[in-house]
């Protein structure tokens, strides 16, 4: 119902916006120009509100699975992140401008959240699954969710990590993220199977890298024949104003565990599209990984429609 209402609201908003863009100055009563300006702003607001309603409606169709189901269904991608970051990944695209120019920009934006765009870029490698936040009745839209008991979550994650075609970990400050990184570096046979999503600026990344280095040093002391890899420096350069996502890049690894940091939204990374920025940037950065793992790149062109999961 929310999805349908959202679509209707978006259509109505676009129609109101069109009414203003087709208006031409001429012999009109003095009050028409301010009135139509209000209509234009209202149209943009209705468009954005409609997309928000559609997003909330899609949450009811987020697929909830048993943790063992993913491994039974063949190739899958394990997406790991801090639960604290779910709100940020659930945001819709927004413009970098304010006022009426912002309303103009809203017309071309995608109605997909950052997590949906990330998952769509990963889906050519298989079904994308992630742990559901404990106690959350209505999961965010994006990856399929599975829920775990508090006393065996590490065993479950490690088992899925070993089986997964790709392991994608979003950098964060939580202890669980550090544990997941340590285990991924130790247990993944192929470096190409590990991807780190970097949703932070340079200063926060430096602090994260120091914590990871210390955690890997301790892991290396427990396994003396293992030489832990190192995370790279944050690439220099200011983020373009046209890049309006919290996801700043990703790190992939070559066959010798040497890291490669692909920065998004900077000169040299390609001019970011105003629509589906995260999707196109992640897809472009993953091309070498997909080629190495012989993943069908053609499937990445299609974003899955909502509604394929269990209705909640």
List keywords for this structure.
single chain; 312 residues; alpha/beta; 2 domains; 11 helices; 43% helix; disordered N terminus; disordered C terminus
What does this structure look like?
The protein has helices at residues 2-21, 32-59, 67-72, 86-89, 100-106, 114-122, 153-163, 175-187, 202-222, 277-285, 287-292, and strands at residues 64-65, 76-80, 127-131, 144-146, 166-170, 194-198, 249-253, 259-263. With 312 residues, the protein is α/β, with parallel strands linked by helices. Strands 1-4-3-2-5-6-7-8 form an 8-stranded mixed sheet, with helices on both faces. Helices cover 43% and strands 11% of the residues. The chain has 11 helices and 8 strands. The protein has 2 domains: 1-61; 63-301. Residues 2-17, 96-103 and 300-312 have low confidence and may be disordered.
